[in-house]
Predict the structure.
Amino acid sequence: MAEKCCCIICKKEFSIKGIHTHYERSHGSAKDKKKYSSGYNYRYNDSKYRKSIKEGLKNRFNKELGILKDFDVICNNCNKFFTVKEREKNFPSKEKYFCSRSCANKRIITKDHREKTSKSLKRNKDIEINCKNCNVSFVTTNKNKKYCSVTCSNKHRAVKQRKNNSAYKNYRLDCAFKFNLKDYPEEFNFSLIESYGWYKPKNRGNNLNGVSRDHIVSVKYGFENNIDPLIISHPANCQLMRHNDNVSKYTKNDLTVNELMQKIKEWNRKYQ
């Protein structure tokens, strides 16, 4: 067991190894506390330490590549003299020197250079692949590509996901409301949203008393009685309700199925 000792100020027990760190973190100066903050290393704030690192790197480059020197060079385009800073081992370099960007752009491109660039471009050949979702052929340079578009990849993955889901989970997904409330301003009580706002969980806004969409005939009832998801997800089966009331309601139905079917008929007549 490690020997323990007591802090002079707060009288808490710590091991001998940890007492110094505790004192600096809790009771030390601002500089001492800053040592232990995230992303901080007090050694790098020391100017002498930084200088020693720079000098060490400089000496290493000088040993391996030689000292930086000024060399007189002739421009390969306009034959103009200009100075270049190079290390001794790199100079004379095989690369051609130009006095400006305009001179560099005017350089003559050799056949060898053109052949090299054409070979590098031809490495990625066009391949014809059949899309896994829609089975339509498309051309690509990527061998690992499986889908012709993002929509096809999302659809194919959704089908895979549905195979792993339970029947009730897939039914819930099919019964989700897919319409915009703004398309039916006369049918819903928007004053609730103005006073309470939309429901948001703790990790996305934390408005637990907000408003959410509720199925008048519940999804659970529809699943147990084999009701078509199109009926359960119809706008006529939607009402705005505070989320707490929605949770307490659970699987209770505010309408019978026959009443809902009548409401859907009237809704379709009105909006079609």
